[in-house]
Amino acid sequence: MLKVTRDPIDPRALEGVLQDGESGGVVTFLGVVRARAGDGRPVDGLEYEAFEPMALAEFERIAQEARERFGDVRVAIVHRTGELRIGEVAVAVAAAAVHRKAAFDACAYAIDEVKRRAPIWKKERYADGSGEWKTNETLHP
Questions:
Q1: Pairing label, strands 89-97, 82-84
Q2: On the CB side of 72, how many CA atoms lie within 13 Å of its CA?
Q3: Which residues pair with 124 in a beta bridge?
Q4: Cross-strand pairs, 31
Q5: Residues of the chain with confidence (pLDDT) below 50
Q6: Is the full-model pTM beyond 0.70?
Q7: Contact partners, residue 18, CB within 8 Å, separation at least 6
Q8: Bridge partner residues of 76 (DSSP)
Q9: What's the pLDDT at 21?
Q10: Of 11, 68, 80, 114, which is most buried, counting CB atoms within 10 Å of its CB?
Q11: What pLDDT, on a 0 to 100 scale, did the predictor assign at position 136?
């Protein structure tokens, strides 16, 4: 499952698509909207935009790279777009493998690369009414 969606993310459904009876390790990372920005300012929510076709292609490349690096692993990536409130899941990455180490390594690799490379942009909405787009390597259009 590689997906960009405006709908809430169900982590159990994400894990479910990876279950095959062979995997001894399934690792899930959830990126959740928090109440404070990295600089400590109160946040009342986030807004995400994505260039979906390019994001999905990047998700596929990342999943393939994880397989090449960590062996027989399966990776699922789902990212939200639109306006999100505090406590909502913005991104979920799950990895499944025969052994836990490969699953942990693949999951960590995938979320790091999604944050670094995917054409998905985040705007922090601050409690004082202001907002700020945050950049990744793809920048904001």
A1: unpaired
A2: 8
A3: 46, 132
A4: 91
A5: 140-141
A6: yes
A7: 26, 74, 76, 94, 95, 96
A8: 94
A9: 87
A10: 80
A11: 72
- What pLDDT was estimated at residue 22? 87
Per-residue confidence (pLDDT) for residue 139, from 0 to 100 = 56
In DSSP notation, the chain reads -EEEESSPP-HHHHHHHH--S--SEEEEEEEE--SB-TTS-BEEEEEEEE-HHHHHHHHHHHHHHHHHHHSSEEEEEEEE-EEE-TT-EEEEEEEEESSHHHHHHHHHHHHHHHHHHSSEEEEEEETTS-EEEEP-TT---
* Distance between CA atoms of residues 27 and 29, nearest Å: 7
CB 107 within 8 A of CB 30: no
Helix axes 52-70, 100-117, angle to 10 degrees: 150
Residues 6+ apart with CB under 8 A from 73: 66, 67, 95, 96, 97, 102, 103, 106
Residue 121: how many CB atoms within 10 A of its CB?
A: 19
Give the tokens for residue 110: 């995938």
pLDDT digits (tens, 9 = 90+) for 49-87: 999 999 999 999 999 999 999 999 999 999 999 999 999
